[in-house]
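Researcher: Structure prediction, please.
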Amino acid sequence: MTAQRTIDRGLEVQQAASAGHSMNTFERFVDSQPILNMLRMLSATGRTNFTEKGAWEVCLCALILKLEPQCKVHRILEALPYDDGMMDEADVLNTMAHLGYICRPAESELDDLDERLLPGLFIPGEKGAEPSVVLGRDADGQLRFFDPLSKLVSHVPSSFDSQGRVWFFQKYDENLQPTSKFMRKGSGHTWFRALMGRFKGTFAQVMTAGLILNVIALATPLFIMLVYDRVIAAGAPATLPMLALGAFIAIGFEWKLRLIRSTGLSWLAGRLDNIVGNRIFAHLIGLSPSLIERASVAAQIARIKTFESVRDFFSGSVFLSLLEAPFVFIAVAAVGFIAGPLVLVPLFMVLGYIALFFFVRSRVKIAIRLAAKASSARQQFTIETFEKLEGIRGHGLGNKWQEKFRHLSGREMMTHFHLGWLGMVAETCAHTLTVLAAVATIGFGAHMIWAGTLTTGALVATMILVWRILTPFYSLCTMVPRLEQLRNSIAQVNNLMDIETEAEEARSFSRLPKIRGRISFHHVGYRNSDETDELFSDLTFEAKPGDLVAITGGNGTGKAAVLQLIKSLNKATSGTVRIDGFDIRQLDAPDLRKQIAYVPRTPSLFHGSVLENMRFANPLASEDDIIKALELADAWDDIRNMPSGLQTVIGSHGGDKVTSSLATRISLARAYLHPGNVLLIDELPNTLLSGKAGRNLKEYLTRAKGKRTVIICTYRDDYMKLVDTIVWLRGLSSPIAGARDTMFEKINAGEKVA
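Model: Predicted structure follows.
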């Protein structure tokens, strides 16, 4: 019995044990056999930290068995941390989150826990104490704990500490989230607006702190006014210490409130950065491949970086100015109380700031749009240049390309110059309004002093208050370009999140428990884009489970496109592609791709060890299975001679570079290791097919006949002789397909495949 079969058998035992309907919650855990089974299975896949001695690991298995007894092991493996070291609290919570559970701390005392919230993860307050799992309550209403060390269920775990905390877990439902389309449909909110609704409590705290802060801030001008009018003018220095003490107390409170507000805003900016960054990345990953491929790599990175301006906004001075603006009325009321009609000066200036804001904003919007187009054109030209650098040099077009780049750079410089100039105009006008406000306040204030309706201290206090009134509006006017860029960034985020991912599209689609391997094309046509001609049209053929099919034809006839249609990486422009009788458009695309092994022409190796790259194909594979697959692909000798063998880190970010030949052989080995019933192989290099890897591939194809549906792109006769069906793509002519011998006659009678 192979390791794979052993693991599968163990999984069946685990699921049967954990799903025993005759056992109650506590009896299931008394013998702890299901937990031990899960630990062994996870350990067999290379997760050596999953042992009986790993308290966090045991608790994780117990939680999963209690919450989701039928959870597949491969789902657990996908949810586990990248690092396979010993787990801690954060690792357990992150794993549960990746499994689709919302993790929340219990807000009540341990004895008052609502049983409906359980099971939960109990973490003792004492440092270094081991966690346990709160299973529920017995017939007497007492809490029952599963102790990971003793593997027993008891009322009090060995590391019990009443000061500990409990995490409970709720299954995540996207439709119930404020940002979901279902919840937003009735509210009319955009995605970002709905997200901000999650932080109502934080905003309420920040605004409350701002209100109190602005009231306390009145202490400074009032202190100055009293010093001028009650101490200096009246010649009463004895009152100065009491006034100073009151001012210092007020300053202390102001400092504390500003610290609280700054902490809240920093937390808000950090949370938004984390949530939105993760959601944008996950959304991009989940989009249809056809949508992703339309944009360059630089454009995809730009999408992820889009939110950086939003994050900077919430942690910057502009947002503080917006928070201060609603409380301007406090300072206005104070000026009206102290100086009477002098309050008209800042009010008129506020109107001037508002007019300036909208005047500049209308022009900045146009300037930003033009600057973005110019920057995009320059960026696209730069990317195209480096992609085609060899051809540019070969045709002697270097000077022409430099001239075009200078033109694009000059246009970009002028648009950014105009945008910067508008910003300077706004700042200059805002500064002028501030100076006029100061001059008018002093001028009218002096007149009121001579008239005896205003004191000198009141005038000084008024000047300070006028400055507090105008400062938020000054900041807003000078930051108009940043505000417009922020608005554009939020609009881009909203537009991106409104695009349906494949998972969202697939909610009403069918999911095949396991693909048997029947593949049929019925009058299928395909083109790369709306602007290009069809690569092929009216393609019809069928592969029964276990059939071997060869796709042949000249370069550019669409051989790889046929595989991509089967893999649901692209969509047919006409006709129908069926898997096991189901229209492929009705199937869950991500689930379909997981079940199909694929060897592309250009393989993808990811940063990590060779072992990790192999287990992407089959997380449950043992090392022996992996070595056998690598031997079959003629890659094991190269891997074995690496510094750390299977543990050698390859890929980018400091990993060992591998040759294109070895990368292709590793990709082929992953396909051998894949447990799916369908294998797609794009056209492989002739040097590989002529060597040991090619000979082994022929033997594998012979053995796979009747067991695994294999579709291979090739022009070589020695491989086409092994298949049952040949599909001949003929460019402008309609493709034809049929039995191997019949197709050989047609191919030999017609054009020779290049």
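Model: Confidence is low (pLDDT under 50) at residues 1-28.
Researcher: Thanks, that helps.
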